[in-house]
Amino acid sequence: MKPLSVRIGGFGGQGIILTAIILGTAAVKKGNLYAVQTQSYGSEARGGECQAELIISDKPINSPTTEYKDIFVALFQSALDKYLITLKKKGTLIVDPKLVTKIPSIEANIYQVPATETAIKLGNRIAANMVVLGFLQKFIKMISKEDLREVITSMVPKKFIDINLKAFDAGVHFAEDLEITMEDIG
Amino acid sequence: MRRKQVLQGNIIVAKAALAARCNFFAGYPITPSSEIAQFMSRELPRMGYDFIQMEDEIASLGACIGASLSGRKVLTATSGPGFSLMQEHLGMAVMAEIPLVIVNVMRGGPSTGLPTKPSQSDIMQARWGTHGDHPIIALYPAFADEIYSETIRAFNLSEKFWNPVIILLDEVLAKAHEDIELPRKNDIHIYKEKIHRIKDLNIYDREIGENPPRVDFFKGYPIHIDGLEHDKHGWPTSDPETVNKMQTLRMQKIYHYLDEIVKFKEYYMEDAEIMIFSFGVSARSSLAAVKMAREQGIKVGLFQALTIWPFPKIPLKERFKQIKKVLTVELNMGQTKYEIERISLDDVEKKALLRANGIPFTPNEVLDKIREF
Which residues, at least 6 apart from A47, have a Cβ–Cβ distance to it below 8 Å? Predict the structure, then answer.
């Protein structure tokens, strides 16, 4: 396989880093692949700029960061503005339309996933990241929905497992009707 | 097949420390090293050992020195600002020959600098941060498995040579979550020192080039540990002959064992015409760049330093006999670059890829620099 690189960007508190860790953990433990997750954020405890990077590969990974990403998930306008240039040509862009309203015209497969709105409906807006994870799962063939559900259950606090899984399922549902091949990813 | 785990770099350090039988931690949490203290605060008391959060980093290293003298295997973890505060006690530990391991997860500096951004700019501080001529060992892992093995090696070296050992770690790698296969307990080598019964209180007595004897503290013998220059009994002295001997003893216990202490890895070096010298996260980007360059037919190799102090002078000098182009890649404004300049002759063409803005190099950036030769 070609190494797959993903960036999730937004602000601190959205569960961006956790989402990348869960995806990476599933790739390693369930997909028997290699994964490196890195991150950058400001000094603020909450609310600052935050982004996580994930590389998944079937070979050991040398550089923990890559220049261009196959998939970019933007969960805030400022993250999109800053990191859109790092998305590969014809790559996949996933945005939350509630938080990202201005998307420049680019050569990319763009998906609008109402993650925050869905999470609010389910009872807790902080589960928006799980909606995104459910949607992302469709693009990463090596990891199944069941694998991810298992990893989520093992990694989130007990009292939030239920809401997280519900949000994850909602994300899976959004992606169900999509016909996606690996070529679409970029 | 061993099951792979996904662990954060900081947690790998902490787990390796416990595997090396570390049983004391005193520290003051600081980004980006906090997870080490957090993990130790949970695990050490559970095992019946001690974790102390001190009021600052000077006190932290003071507590570590005391604990080490009482026979504990000690660890502390910090970042640049805390490492600055530790320098006074680091000198004390060198002078009194006290084994301990300090992890410095580097962040951008100077001062409080860039708390959440990577930087490789404490390399010279690790070497010369504390005052006076002194020996130091500093290790610099890059890959997840090296973070584990080098942490264990740090404990072994500190115990064997009775000297503080510093682990320099990059913020990116300390915070990254990565797959790792931890070694089996039986596959881990732990240095076990011989305990010498003190008969005549000559606790610093040995021949030049020998390791100091490990003494059996708290067995009823009065001993003296001092930051002042001391004689073989540990008592303060300024007698020039004794001072000279003690300085030499401290330096030579390390410099007689360079073969054992200096560790490095080489990639694609057999036929290399260009050598990259790098370490930590920059070595990882460099390795990716070397592979890309090789695909384009550029004969480039990577020398990755795992021991940064003592500097791998002898093996590098050997490489410079054949290789006449060297590229230093480091996330600072040129710290090891000068070391390379010191040990390579004028017939070696030297370039450096340097940056200190908190952003690690991508493989493409290293590749572009390789192409400048």
Answer: A11, A12, A13
Inter-residue contact A73 to A20 (CB < 8 Å):
no
Supply angle C-alpha A97, A102, A108, rounded to 5.
80
Cα–Cα dist B307/B329, whole Å: 16
Which uninterrupted H or E stretch holds A61?
none
Distance CA B311, CA B303 (A): 13
Edge-to-edge order in the sheet of strand B177-180 = A108-112, A87-95, A69-74, A4-11, A49-57, A34-41, B177-180, B5-8
Q: How far is CA B168 from the centre of its chain?
A: 5
To the nearest whole Å, the CA of B193 is away from the closest chain A CA by 36
Domain endpoint, select from B155, B187, B219 = B187
CA dist B80 → A42, B30, B129 (Å): 17, 9, 11
Residue B93, domain extent: 5-187
Residues of A in contact with B289 (CB under 8 A): 63
Name which residue leads in pLDDT, A164 or B194: A164
Asked, for residue B84, whether it belongs to a domain, the answer is: yes
Whether residues A35 and B179 touch (CB distance < 8 A) is answered with yes
Q: Is the pLDDT of residue A183 over 70?
A: no
**Could you tell me the pTM of the whole model?**
0.95
Q: How many helices (H) and strands (E) does chain B have?
A: 13, 16
pLDDT digit string, tens, across residues B119-135: 999 999 999 999 999 99
Fold adopted by A4-185? Pyruvate-ferredoxin Oxidoreductase; domain 3 (3.40.920)
Note which residues in 51-80 of chain A have CB less than 8 A from chain B. 61-67
Of B153, B187, B221, the residue that ends a domain is B187
| Contact (CB, 8 A) for B64 and B90 | no
Q: Give the number of domains in chain B.
A: 2
- From chain B residues 276-305, the ones with a CB under 8 A of any chain A CB are 281, 284-285, 287-289, 291
Give the helix ranges, DSSP H, for chain A. 16-29, 77-83, 115-122, 128-136, 145-155, 161-176, 182-185
The full set of domain ranges for chain A reads: 4-185
For chain B, the 3-state helix, strand and coil shares in percent, each to the nearest 5, are 40, 20, 40
Dump pLDDT digits (tens) for B185-202: 999 999 987 666 555 677
Residue from B113, B140, B119 nearest B360 by CA: B119
| Residue B359 structure tokens | 């952003």
CATH no. for residue B311? Answer: 3.40.50.920
